[in-house]
User: What shape does this take?
Amino acid sequence: MRKERVSSVSRRDFVKNMALGTAGALLLKQRHALGAAAAPGEPLRVGFIGVGGRGSHLLTQVLSIDGVEVIAICDINPGNLKRAQRMVEEKSGKPPDGIGDTPYDYRKLLARKDLDCVVIATPCYWHSTMYIDAIRAGKHFYGEKPLSITASELKAVNDVYKENPSVVVQIGFQWGADKARGDIIRKVHGGLIGELLEGRFHRYNGWDGHGGWYADRALSGDWMLEQAVHEFNLIWWVTQAHPVSCFATGRSGIIPGRNTTNYYHAILQYPEKLNNLVVHYGHGWIHVSGFPGEGLEADFIGAKGALNVMDAYVQLREAPAGGSARINGEGPRGETREHFLNFFECVRAGTPENANCGIANGTGGSIIGLMIRQSLEEKRVVTLEETLRDTRKPPVPPA
Assistant: This one.
């Protein structure tokens, strides 16, 4: 799909072309083009781009994994950079190289030949730019969500990835590392709860106290892309389809010092075989501590039963003969550390198709957030095609 056809893209073409799954025959042909990283028995050499709050947490997780060596870090905040270098030195006895004099110094890190992969944990408005650069440089990367905060850049990431499908990409949807969750979702795909009828999702947080780029929707993409995209990945994981339409309503301006949406509710409708499915999602930062309802719900109701995605079980309407009405997903539970283990395994083996949450997950989750944001902005029902026609760009500085 050529760039000039974005405005006329159909849902069918989008689902076909936007990396929903592996990159098909091209991937099978090129999957080992980069070669397996690091010789057997040698450590993987890792670089970090962004070591603020989230990046420091990810660095802690990586430093707990054997067979991995952090040799370079980039951050334009000198305090963040020095702290991260100390963390690595305390663990390994040797400080990593540090760079970060200008916003685009991360490209120097991506150009290094002595790095097997990178971890990118920067503010959301940088994601698509850095991910495109990493893919073009042939650098396997673990990148924080969302994949993009604009539809035009979401398409750009997919276009570049189709040309470089041997790059291992792991989007930071750490819930995707849970094997029990994956097992029960596979059973749902196999018909365990029958036709999907309703999705019941919400995340209700306490009074919003975030500052900095989190409180600026132009930089964060707003909460439906900065935070709720975790749940949207779960929705995509179960449905394997994009919504055809979305209606959302909510409010901003209630909590001073930010222009992000304080709370909203959205209704998503689906195509073809899922045409009886309606997903509703509630999200906000106004909940009162100690009052019932705070936290997360992620459930699907089907004709034969219900799926609790987070707790990885199904409750059937009728128990099978001699069996239980509750069926639990099988396999070890996992989050961020296990997500990294999967990523590093794929980097070593040169198997991007085995990543827990690749470009397809990042695309599926981001699309729902983009549709919700547009519906809130325009106060009307929006379609997938309308969302994909949005030409906005993230506000990164000129190179």
Q: What stands out?
A: The chain has a mean pLDDT of 92. The first helix runs from residue 11 to 17. DSSP finds 14 helices and 15 strands in the chain.
